[in-house]
Amino acid sequence: MLNRLEKSGYARREADPADRRRVRVVMEDSAQARILRVYGPMYERFGRLFADYTPDEIAVLADWFTRAKALLRESLDEIREG
Question: What is the pTM (predicted TM-score) of this model?
Fold first, then answer.
């Protein structure tokens, strides 16, 4: 996947100055603008959607999705073990 991101100009590998054995993945400067051109309209729609909810309501939604994700993962594990 990293090779694809590099080839597409979204990211590059950079040596870690503190540890020569490690490599950092750095987003290219132009990548954020390219990503926002594609996903920006969706982000704006989500922003308008969330504006209809109070912070407490958003907290409940976030809690629900977090807990539902865990339940789905548990169910998928059971199915795979099946």
Answer: 0.56
